[in-house]
Structures are given as structure tokens and as C-alpha cells.
Amino acid sequence: MNLEQIDEAQDRRGQAEGGPAFLRRDRSQKEATRVAYGKALLELGRENPQVVVLDADLSKSTHTGAFAKEFPERFFDMGIAEQDMMGTAAGLAFCGKTVFASSFAIFATGRAFDQVRNTICYPALNVKIAATHAGITVGEDGGSHEAIEDVALMRSIPNMTVVVPADATETRLAVKAAAAWEGPVYLRLGRLDVPVLFDEGYPFRIGKAVRLREGRDVALIANGVMVAAALEAADRLARDGIEARVINMSTVKPIDAEEIEAAARECGALVTAEEHNVLGGLGSAVAEVVVQRRPVPMALVGVQDRFGQSGKPLELLEEYGLTAADVEAAARQVVARKGR
Amino acid sequence: MSTQLSTQLLDPEYAFRPAQPVLSAEERNRLQGIALTLRRDIIEMTAAAQSGHPGGSLSAADIVTCLYFSILRHRPQDPHWPDRDRFVLSKGHAAPVLYAALAEAGYFPREQLQTLRRLHSPLQGHPDMRKLPGVEASTGSLGQGLSIGNGMALAGKLDGRDYRVYVLMGDGEIQEGMVWEAAMTSVHRHLDNLTAFVDYNQLQIDGRVTDIKSLTHVGRRFAAFGWHVLEIDGHDLDAIHAAVQDAQRTKGRPTLIVAHTIKGKGVPFMEDQVEWHGTAPKPDQAKEALAQLGAGGKEAAQA
Ligand SMILES: Cc1ncc(C[n+]2csc(CCOP(=O)(O)OP(=O)(O)O)c2C)c(N)n1
Ligand SMILES: [Mg+2]
Questions:
Q1: Nearest CA residue ID for atom 18, ligand 1
Q2: What pLDDT, on the 0 to 100 scale, is given for residue B22?
Q3: What Rg value do the Cα atoms of chain A yield, rounded?
Q4: CA distance linking residue B198 with residue B186, whole number of Å
Q5: Which residues of chain A does CATH 3.40.50.920 include?
Q6: How far, in Å, CA of B127 to CA of B118, rounded?
Q7: Hey, which of A164, A200, A301, B91 would disulfide with A223, CB 3.0 to 4.6 Å?
């Protein structure tokens, strides 16, 4: 199958056998999570006059532009100065504002790391860092712009909450939840148009994983763009009688340890899937729970500690081993290791 | 018609225009031809990739031409020659103009230009020194090139080598605080072997630089830090050449050349349009752009 066909197969995936009601059967509608962020921010701005938005010369790409247009007095374009942006966000938060600060994930977390760590997280301020263009699906801009370490960086800071939405619906809910949450939040968003997986009834809560498919042979724990791949992998495994549980672990921190422990106990083998370096991201977070609570065979699908590069997003997912086929292969491998 | 830059814009304090032309007519002709070739390549590459940054590549084409084809001491056949002059493209998104220059200089075959931004291509979206010979520094994260240049200039002094270091920054880029930290270092360390350019096209992504975070009197700001400052028309090959010569003569401190430019220069429908920062021309637009630029590059200029 070529990439287009794989893509289409994912779209058509009309899994007849139940699954939660909020999980769409028809996945042909697509929207980038950054686009959903822009829309949610606008709604939030209308609901809450304390919300202010900062950007660093990327408001067209991050989609904070719509908020800027409607609420110009509550929008501050800080120019190409991410560190200054984070410090300013802290000052605004000290004075009672709920601040959303946006840039590309690489600059929001990398360039401004110390400002985020010392000036936002140390005092646990109400700054929500909504970073777009995360991961290798940035595509043509290449390795300098593809954040593969942002989750690791943000997750390692005390007081920080880390959320990686899988689609537009979850993004919208996560933006609202982040605004209501006390303290700093990192929202990891993407550039690429991705299938809308969930209907409005999707039960999003920060810190709570959502089970998308039942199964007891292996559990596939994914977030971001890899959730769609995990669902597709579960379909393929089912054809061979392997029943895979699929879990959307959109909150990487605080992680839903109960759900992970239950998956380890009931399925006996785990695969994590993330568009991020396997060092320090979702896979690591899950492994930290598993080794302490219930060790079982586990495989980590993700970027294998190498930088990204230029290419088309779908080509890159294939090059870096982040397709449904890769998740499927990892699942077969851990299932084989079970009970050995 | 291509827009002409008004030299009225130059800060009178630092305005620099050579009293008489420093290039021979023949040399100027040759360089103009090369600049045209680079501009055509920029359009063709970004059109082939359907991705990339034409605006800031076109605005820097004359500076890059002057550097690579009349100023820099370099050996395309020996890219790691220790005594070569160094050029750091701090505004890494302008990679197409750098790649076009490197190909024209013979660092790699011209055919490779068409692979811009493709999977496994050495011509990454932003310059990757581990993938392409001739690229002196991997850039793309703005604001870091001046520090890199300082390091190279310091190493030159340490090793007793007489190479010179050139850094090209964007005007939006110098909103990064790190640039000003580096600007202090260059002066404090008396890096007279370093020359920095600001591609002063007055546009960034979200709009005009003055509207986003103003940088008026950029020359005075650097001068106050202790830099030797020259403001020039960044599309005037004689002015670029003469300004670099002036920098070479300046001892004890670094030189900043504020090059007033037009973003998208050479393609009228792209000129001074913020939309053309990071949008590639569609095939029909590329055709129009090439027609407006005029055919031929070197050949046409010689004819
Ligand atoms: C640290 C960092 N922040 C943001 C960006 C995204 N970005 C790429 S180009 C650009 C605008 C650059 O404007 P300017 O420096 O004026 O360049 P030019 O007009 O010459 O293209 C921005 C914000 C980046 N590459 N690096
Ligand atoms: Mg500019």
C-alpha cells in the first residue's frame, strides 16, 4: 500500500463492532489541532475577559490570529523573542490573568526553557503554553523545527501539566480545561491536518486516560497523531484474533497510573506510541509506572533518538517508524514475549 | 517594474555610499548576472518544493552574491580549508539563496537544487552543515548566528589565522535577546575580523517590524554598543562591496552593515509583501516570476 492508500484505509475504517459512542466511524473530516486551538481560544476569549494571548511572530501559523483580531487589546505579539514572551506571560499571570502563550513547540520549550522552568513553573503560574508544530509532521521545514523532545522537557518540570490532544475535538476540550486548571499547562499541538476522531460527547479530563477500544491481549497506549495509528493497528490485529485495547493517554502528566496498571494486569503486554523521542516522552512515562507497579513486556514506538528532517509529513511518519504497521508489529512482538 | 529603494531611508548618521563606483563595469555586470541566476534559482527551487521562503531569500540575493563571488576567500573544492572566510546564514530560513550560491560556486551540482526540502535531500528546509558541504553552521532557530560568528572570530584570533567571518541576520531576527548579548561580546572582544549584516527589509512574518516590535534607529543602537556601523542600499553591489572593504580596514571593533533591502526584491508581485515570507510560488506564479526577473542570468548579463 502506498501512503495515500494507508491514509484512506484509516479514514474508511468503518469498524462495525461497537466501541464507544463518541468514537467516530467516519474519519474523513480532517483538521489540524492548531486550527482547533485557534477556534477554542476565540470562544474562550468571549467567555472570559481575563484571558490574554501572547505570540512570538507566528500568529498565522499558531492560529492565535483570530483571537488577535477580535480582542486586539488582549493580544500581544512579542516579536521573535520567545524568552521575553514567557517572562511577560509570567508577569501577566502574577497580576491575575490567564495567559496563553504560543509559538512553535521547538522554540516555546527549547529556547525559553529556563523562563518556563524558573519563572512560570517554579511559582506555579497560570500560564498555558500552547505550542504548535510539534513532532516530525512539521514536514518540509526539517529537523531544526521538529520538536521531538518537548514532552520530555516539559514533563520533567515540577508543577507542569502536559497534554497532547489527538484531534480537533479533544483540543477544544483541552484548551477549555487548561484555562480552568490551576497552574501551568503545556498543550502540544500539530501542524498537520489529522482525522477528527471524536464527537462532542468525548469525556476529556486532564489526568484521565480514555479507553477507545476494549481488548485483553495487548494494550496500545498512544497520544497525538499516534492515536489514529493505534486504532488502525488494533483493527489489523483483530483480523488475526489479537484483541488490542486502545488507550488515549493525552495527559502525559499527571499520568493516569490506574489505567496503566489495569492495562498491564488485564492485557499483560503494552505498546506505547508517540510522535516524540522514545527517550523521556509518553513511553518513558508509562514505563515509569509499569516498572513500579506491574512489570510486563513493553515496546516503545516513537522516534528512535534521531533528529527529524525535511520531507512530506506522511513520508516522515513512515521513515521514522510511526505508522499503524509499526504499532502493529510492536504489538505482535510484545504479545510473543508474554509469559516467556 | 521592480521597486527601487529610496536611499533617503538611510540614517544620515551612518549612511554610506561610495564616492565613486568600486567595481569595474565588467565586474558589476558579472555580479548582476549571478544575482539574477540566484534569484531565478530561488523561484525554481521553492516552486519545485512547493514550500520554502522566497521573500527573505530574494532580499538577501545581492549581499550573498557579493560575498560569495567577489569577497569571500574560499575553495569550493576544499570546503574545509582552515583559512577560508566563514559565512553564517543566521536567518536560516533564507536557505534557498545560500544553496543557490553554493551550487553556482561549485560546491555541489546544480541539479541538486531541485531536491530542496525533499526527504533525504542534503538541501534541508534550514541549512544543515552535516548534510551539505559549504554550509558553515546549522541554523534555523533565529538569533543565534552572531554568537556563532563571534566564536569563529575568536578561534581565528586564537589560531593566528587571518580569515574573516560574515554573519547575515534578519531585521525581525534581531528582536531575539541573544543577538544583543552577542553584540556586546563582539565589541568586548574587539572582533574586527567579524562583519555582520542586517537584511533590513522591514518585514517579519506577522507584519511590519515597526508594528510588531519596533527597531527604529537600528544603526544607532549598535553604534551605542560600540560597533562600527554603515547603512547602505543592500541591492547596490558597489555599496555592499565598498562597505565590506571599509569593515576590513576598521581595526579594534566589529562592523555592522545595515543593508536596506526590499523583501521579495526582483519579483514585483512579491516585493514588500508579507505574504511572500514563507509561501512558495505555484507553477503559474513561478512562471510569471521568472518572466519578470528576465531570462538568462549570466548569459543575458553578458550579452
Ligand atoms: C527562534 C525562532 N523563533 C521563530 C522562528 C520562526 N520564524 C522563521 S522566519 C521568522 C521571521 C523572520 O523575520 P526576519 O528576521 O525579518 O527575516 P526576513 O524578513 O529576512 O525573512 C520567524 C518568526 C524561528 N525560525 N526561530
Ligand atoms: Mg525582515
A1: B56
A2: 96
A3: 19
A4: 15
A5: 13-28+201-337
A6: 13
A7: A164
Mean pLDDT by 10 residues, chain A (340 residues): 46 55 96 98 98 98 98 98 98 98 98 98 98 98 98 98 98 98 98 97 97 98 98 98 98 98 98 98 98 98 98 98 98 92
Q: Is the separation of the CB atoms in A321 and A273 below 8 Å?
A: no
- What values do phi and psi take at A48, rounded to 5? -135, 105
> In percent, how much of chain B has pLDDT > 70?
96
- From-to residues of CATH 3.40.50.970 in chain A: 30-195
Q: Cβ of B126 and A144 within 8 Å?
A: yes
A149 vs B105: CA distance, rounded Å: 37
What is the distance between the alpha carbons of residues A262 and A214, in angstroms, rounded to a whole number? 12
- Mean pLDDT of all residues in B169-174: 98
Residues of B with CB under 8 A from a CB of A: 49, 51-52, 92, 117-121, 123-126, 128, 138-143, 172-173, 175-177, 204-207, 212-213
Sheet of A98-104: strand order equals: A75-77, A51-55, A98-104, A127-132, A185-188, A161-163, A251-253
For B121, name the nearest residue in chain A, comparing CA atoms only. A310
Q: Which stretches does DSSP call E strand in chain A? A: 30-31, 51-55, 75-77, 98-104, 127-132, 161-163, 185-188, 194-195, 210-213, 218-222, 244-248, 251-253, 270-277, 298-303
CB-nearest to A310 from B124, B142, B172 is B124
CATH 3.50.30.10 is held by the domain A13-28+201-337: no
Pocket test for ligand 1, best of B58, B62, B93 (most atoms within 8 A of CB): B93
**CA A287/CA A266 separation, integer angstroms:** 16
| Residue A210 in grid coordinates | 480514555
How far B119 CA sits from the closest chain A CA (Å)?
4
Does any ligand 1 atom lie closer than 6 A to the CB of residue B170? yes
Domain at A30-195: CATH code: 3.40.50.970
Mean pLDDT of all residues in B209-237? 97
A50 touches B: beta carbon within 8 Å: no
Angle between helices B177-188 and B145-158 (to 10 degrees): 20
**Nearest residue, CB atoms, B175 vs list A81, A143, A145:** A81
ipTM: 0.95
- Does B241 contact ligand 1 (Cβ within 6 A)? no
DSSP B147-185: HHHHHHHHHHHHTT----EEEEEETTGGGSHHHHHHHHH
Whole-number pLDDT of residue B3: 75
CB within 8 Å: A80 and B51: no
Q: How far apart are CA A261 and CA A268, in angstroms?
A: 10
User: Which parts of A151-293 are beta strand (E)?
Assistant: 161-163, 185-188, 194-195, 210-213, 218-222, 244-248, 251-253, 270-277
Using CB atoms within 10 Å of the CB of residue A47, give its burial: 0 to 12 exposed, 13 to 18 middle, 19+ buried.
exposed
pLDDT in tens, B32-72: 999 999 999 999 999 999 999 999 999 999 999 999 999 99
| Rounded Cα distance, A245 and A233, in Å | 11
Q: Tell me which residues of A are annotated as active site.
A: 82
Contacts for A258 with CB less than 8 Å, ≥ 6 apart: none
